[in-house]
Design a protein that fits this description.
mainly alpha; 74% helix; elongated
Amino acid sequence: MALDPADQHLRHVEKDILIPKIMREKAKERCSEQVQDFTKCCKNSGVLMVVKCQKENAALKECLTAYYNDPAFYEECKMEYLKEREEFRKTGIPTKKRLQRVPTSM
């Protein structure tokens, strides 16, 4: 039984794991300033990072949570996932492999 590439139905694993994974990756990119601030603070604070980096951690958490709770952002990530899945079902080639360069000469 071949899967319809244009099928929009999502399995539980896609809804609960794969789409949230895309959301986390994209949210980290969009909150890159807060991620950098928190990372820098942690590197500079060592063992005391739990105490010293609370402000940076709160800012990062706030930024990420805003994206996680945004229905429009979820829909954007869902559509991106569906597009990748459709392409995979058509070609049988995962996105990562498709984006890798093919050698031009042997």
